[in-house]
Amino acid sequence: MERLRLVGLDDTVVFPSMTVTLPVDIGDDRRVFLVPRHGKDYAPIGVVAEVVDRVRLQGGGKAAVLSGLHRGVAGAARADPAGHLVVDVEDRPDGTLPPGRTTDLEREYRAVVLEILELRGDDGRVAAFLRSITEPGALADTSGYSPDISFAQKVHLLETLDVVERLTLALRLQRDRLAELQVRKRIREDVESGAQKQQRDYFLRRQLDSIRKELGEDETSLAGEYRKKITAAEMPDPVREQAERELGRLERMGESSPESSMIRTYLDWLLAVPWAQRSEEILDPVHARAVLDADHAGLDDVKLRIVEYLAVRKLRAERGVPDDRRSGAILTLIGPPGTGKTSIGESIARATGRKFVRMSLGGVRDEAEIRGHRRTYIGALPGRLVRALRDAGTMNPVIMLDEVDKVGADWRGDPSAALLEVLDPAQNHAFRDHYLDVELDLSRVLFIATANVADTIPGPLVDRMEVIRFDGYTVEEKLAIARGFLWPRQVERNGLRPDEVSVDETLLRTVVTAYTREAGVRQLERELGTLLRKTATRIAAGTAVAPVAVDDVMMREALGRPKFFQEGAARTAVPGVATGLAVTPTGGDVLFIEAAAMPRGEGLVLTGQLGDVMKESARIALTYVRSHAAELGIGKCDFAHRQFHIHVPAGAIPKDGPSAGVTMVTALASLLTGQPVKHTVGMTGEVTLQGRVLPIGGLKQKVLAAHAAGLTDVILPERNRGDLDDVPADVRKALRFHPVSSVDEVLALALEPRAQAVAA
User: Fold this and answer.
1) Which end of the chain is more exposed for a tag (fewer CB within 10 A), N or C?
2) Of 132, 484, 126, whose CA–CA distance to 296 is shortest?
3) Count of CB atoms within 10 A of residue 451's CB?
4) Helix (H, G, I), strand (E, B) or coil at 216
């Protein structure tokens, strides 16, 4: 162990084989111990250095030229008599390694460092120095020369005594340096190539300008062309002024500006709006009704509203009354799928002589779809309304906003909020698209919105609409639609001629009643399509010869067994089952409510995936029956230690609402009295604890469902008597209606007489 003077190096690391000049006075010492230092912290390992020369600096200072020999581990430190700090040093020179142990590491290290030198533009001297080093430890120490390696990394490298580990560490550090330099090179090349491309584009544009000038197609002619289009478009004055301002900007900045293409796109969209174009309206209410009747069966409400709209427009035009920009028509058709809401929009456009544009709003979540994007965004576009006017080519088309109840909302905005202005007759004459940023007059547009349910449409939006409800078709209307529209269309789609296949009224009625039960006619058209495909296959295969008359056997083979049955009689044959009427998003439906009692229990069990309101109706029904047991002829012992269970079948479908109250009372009363419910009776109505029957909604759809299910008697609340006027006349003739005010009347009408019950 050797005792040497300690020389601290502030944030500097000296490796073996390095020669450095330090401004220190080392006296007569021939060797010193160089240790890296950061603040007051010394590294535990340093380098034993030999004094090569002593020099005198300008100003009288002294310096020493030192050459690193090998590593050393610092031991005990003390001050010598002269006051200098000396330390005991244990020499740790690099040992001799077996041949070939570090060959691969040395080769890879040299390759990485040579690639770094190439990226840095080395003139070859450093590379020659690197190749001259044969010892692996000295080769690893060359990383200490790198200016990109931090002080901490160099200290770590110095403290690594094992040669293999040191060489591995040095290789990792140099790989990191290489990766960083390669990234810098790519960035530099991208910047340079971008600058070169801009210069190239600039020169090409200048050449293009020269060519255009020679051809007489310079920027002046481009601006002149836009100016002619602006004049011909007959824009409103504020819009024309905006267009001329943008055209002036285009002229001042020239074609070479990147913003010129954005201004041209904006001007193209301004010119695409048909500012002065109007469709010549057909203001003939009789003709409009004839067109609507020819295209659609039923739907009298919407047909009547369109005829009224045209009649008012006709009178105002004949009497010279100026148009009121705040009196636009905005109709909303709400009803089950397949009832013709979307297709009637085209018929309305044809009846009024207007263009028709359909906008599907289902799943739209971005407000910009309605109002457009602001021009500050790259790739900005106007909203769908501007595009609809462009597609229509007029300012007074029929625009159908399809599936308005399925508009979503997220962090990009709420499209339904943007529709508030569009569908408000008091505001839409000054609608402003974010992209165009000019006022658009939408008051002459006939908006028709469609939806399946009104519950998901925001209240303020519904308040701006004139709602017309589609409650579905009767069996007779479905027969008329099938005979007049669906059958001919499916005959054509399946490659048949009208004289090759025929079907009678009875078979069509069977398809309507036994294979479909829907408010609309989509499933009916699918069934007819299946029937005709089978017929077309037979004709094409040669197993049938045209003309073919479709009969019951062919229908069974094509469509299979009937899918729906008149099961009211079978379901209500036993006490405790009553037939209720309900409304679903797809139309009206028949609902069977079953009640049962179990001994040795108490309370009420409810199943069938019922909502909170329906559960409350069941509890009210049980309470009423219990409190009026004596009037109903039910003994108190019938409730003692018995648990009641009410079940509504189709348990996979959620159900809710108060209108099943009377049906639940009837089912419980039937169960406890032993009197079955008449199988021809369907009922609806909310019930109270006092036995009052309160009004409900959706009566028309419920009555249509009762008629389709084969019921003949419908019990309904007295206060819904006026709603029967909405029921089609043929359905009213086929059914008997019993408006009631109390549960006593319901039970008297619904339950079989007690004598018949006992006999049964």
Assistant:
1) N
2) 484
3) 25
4) coil
pLDDT at 215: 65
37: tokens are: 């230092």
Q: Which residues pair with 583 in a beta bridge?
A: 588
Q: What is the model's pTM?
A: 0.61
User: Could you identify the residue written with the tokens 């002036």?
Assistant: 248
Q: What are phi and psi of 610, to 5 degrees?
A: -90, 145
As a whole number of angstroms, the distance between CA 75 and CA 1 comes to: 9
> Which residues, other chains included, contact 394 with Cβ-Cβ below 8 Å and sequence gap of 6+?
274, 277, 278, 279, 354, 355
Q: Which residues are catalytic?
A: 659, 702
pLDDT in tens, 352-379: 889 999 998 888 888 888 888 888 888 8
| SS3 of residue 288 by DSSP | helix
The structure tokens 């010394």 sit at 42
Distance CA 545, CA 539 (A): 6
Q: What is the 3-state secondary structure (H, E, C) of 254-284?
A: CCCCCHHHHHHHHHHHHHHCCCCCCCCCCCC
Q: Say how far apart CA 394 and CA 756 lie, in whole Å.
A: 71
- The three-state secondary structure class of 77 is strand
Give the integer Cα–Cα distance in Å for 33 and 14.
Answer: 10
Which pLDDT does position 715 carry in this prediction? 95
Please give the residue that has the higher pLDDT: either 394 or 184. 394
Which of the 8 DSSP states describes residue 391?
H
Whether the bond between 547 and the residue before it is cis, its omega within 30 degrees of 0, is: yes
Residue with tokens 């006593």: 744
Residue 95 has what DSSP assignment?
Answer: P
Using DSSP, state whether 175 is helix, strand or coil.
helix
Instruction: Place 257 in a pLDDT band, splitting at 50, 70 and 90.
Output: confident
Residue 448 and residue 465: Cα distance in Å, rounded? 9
The CA distance from 389 to 357, in Å, is: 8
